[in-house]
Fold Aminopeptidase N.
Amino acid sequence: GQVINLADYRPTDFVLERVDLTFELDPTETKVEARLIFHRREGVDPSAPLILDGDELNLSSLLFDQNELAPERYTVTPESLVIRDLPETVPFEVTVTTIINPEANTQLMGLYRTSGIYCTQCEAEGFRRITYFPDRPDVLAPYTVNIIADKDANPLLLSNGNFLGGAGYGPGKHFAAWFDPHPKPSYLFALVAGDLGVVEDTFTTMSGREVVLKIYVEHGKEPRAAYAMDALKRSMKWDEEVFGREYDLDIFMIVAVSDFNMGAMENKGLNIFNDKYVLADPETATDADYANIEAIIAHEYFHNWTGNRITCRDWFQLCLKEGLTVYRDHEFSSDQRSRPVKRIAEVRHLKSEQFPEDGGPLAHPVRPTKYREINNFYTTTVYEKGSEVTRMIATLLGRETFKKGMGLYFDRHDGQAVTIEDFVKCFEDASGRDLAQFSLWYHQAGTPLVTASGSYDAGAKSFSLSLEQMTPATPGQPTKEPMHIPLSLALFAEDGSKFEPASVDGAEYAGEVLHLTARTQTAVFHGVASRPVVSINRSFSAPINLHFDQSPADLALLARYETDHFARWQALTDLALPNLLKAARDAREGAPIVCEQTFVDTLIAAAADESLEPAFRAQALALPSESDIARELGSNIDPDAVHAGRQAIMKQIAEAGKATFAALYDAMTTPGEFSPDAKSAGRRALRNTALTYLSYAESSPARAKAAFDGANNMTDLSHALTILAHRFPDSAEAKAALETFRSRFQDNALVVDKWFAIQAGIPGPGALDRVKALMENPLFKRTNPNRMRSLVGTFAFGNPTGFGRADGEGYRFLASQILDIDQRNPQLAARLLTSMRSWRSLESARADHARSALMEIEKADSLSTDVRDIVERTLK
Ligand code: HT7
Ligand code: ZN
């Protein structure tokens, strides 16, 4: 794996005009014939050869304009096919035949088999595992696909685009032909064949065209696809209403498979999904599952315009489609659900996943300039920070101008493969604003730290806010330029009303957004009648760390009066954090742990405040996680102390608020038939949060056991089980509940994943032995990515005390698993290994153990490029 540099980009020498593929499917010997028509690009050296990519391929035959090609005119290896002496101007046809083995494809990239189904995953570079091809996103062509297969085993033969026709094809076989008229890059190619059940519906587009919608799932699981279908239709409608985007084929298909490396894939007209993000019913799916399904169905559908119609010039531009599409799916969910609650969830996720990435050895810009393995750049920085950068453009320009810029982007670049510069230019042209400094958000890695301090001049009736920004050094970027940071900001009076300053000096301030552009800047707000309480970075308008020393009284005022409910939640979190940090430090020193009364009172008051929606109250009560606390501590982390400190704080809040929590638990029921809507989900969330606190106040599993026994949906059932297992792991109640759960759901893989994950998350040093024992359980399936993530992934990412046990055995266990998984599925191995990214922040004994486990991996001799890239960057 050598390094690929953005600076080396140049267009291909040959233009691909058309692609005709014929697959003769066989589990172990599938024949792929690719007829490719090319012509030399104008101005290209007439002696330049055609270079096609391959990956573990073997060539079976090669024709040039239908004739066999003389061996001296080409060179072939498993990784490339080079053809020489090609026509100077006229188009020519290359017919490549390869034989591939889907059954042996354990990487799940290219054409593979899962539960007897043929399926493909081509992003980013999987197509080259099917045939020799210019496998890069700036090569766009229309595709015709013919699929031939055994009829009984594969009644279903699917590919991209519109169905052309099908018929019998010799004894026991049949074929189907598909044509996709929209020029597309190879990473959007898809093929599915097998025997599946289907749910069908239709959608009438804004111009009156009827589109057939089909969701394919395993036979018998059709009823569990109803919610996904509903989410799809809502997504299609939303994209028409909000962005004016209409669907562009006669049919839109989704196929759910059980072995998949990521969440889902936006192949043109034929999305392929991890079945975890399609299948749901009340008995087996949690409210979080429903919300994820809605978001991912929307995300993949939205790619039809942001990614497919307009695609990336090269993989450095990945955020062009991913950041933008995440922004679009966030907006969709905000419109479908509660905007502030959705924003809180987004920011929690960003801080717990992206901030550690941006602050550690794997930090990279949203638009990187080099990579060794592109699979390792499907990161939370590209996706989530990329989305935040898009959101900031909308904040800077205002909603209407942002939409104008998007319109320009769709008009100007439809059918093209473009760059971030092309994207940003549309917003410059739409607004007349220079976005050069703003673009640093794409190029500079690291989370900016903004330090704020305020002072009020009663005589002048003015308030000065001094701001300083600093972006920390990250790998390859020792120094940083000041960024353009849009800070949504408001000033509040003691009675909770908002000040409207007469004028502002020292910074641009319009529409309640303050533009911080210099390294240091002082904004002076005039006409402020009394000392204001400032709310900075409302709605999390910029993805920054903010240091602002606000008194508990000021924070309590914001928690009570802010009109932006995200900011209310932020104020409550800012009240909680110092308590949790102090508790962790005190626990490490064996000192008594005590919590500030203002914080406890404010939190319990918020919990009981009926003017606030239940989902918001649940978010407010969910304290920062142990990983969040560790990140805020920054260095010398002892996971046991963080855990002990947080537990002690939970107990103090629980005891002080026992009556409130008991009342909420009784009140927040959801009578009648189960509904996954956001409002009902919010009531369940608040009720379950109350149950968690009660488990601390009551120190007995009785109430959780009763909740487990009485649950009529998976949200309540799995929450009760988690309390039993995590809080009372040695109790008879926990053991019995785990067993009941297993025997009831052992035939449902997605629920079995939950059973593994709940146990992998049980805190404490005993977790490792439990995880090892679970790996021997007959239900454990080492080759299934969902199962691996639920057991090993939850242990490594979600169990700081178990994974980080003091003797380093957790890290060594992970290293051995990585080496094993890497043999089959490098992408999965590399992703699980990123759980080690914050190892340098650990206290020294654990850090030493972590380093030596990483070095064990590094010295193994047959590492994949994926794992080698991650381990070397993590150790650097
Ligand atoms: N665009 C898709 C990314 C994806 C992927 C990437 C690498 C290897 C396997 C993969 N499966 C899906 C998903 C998305 O962001 O929409
Ligand atoms: Zn995506």
Observations:
- The first helix runs from residue 226 to 243.
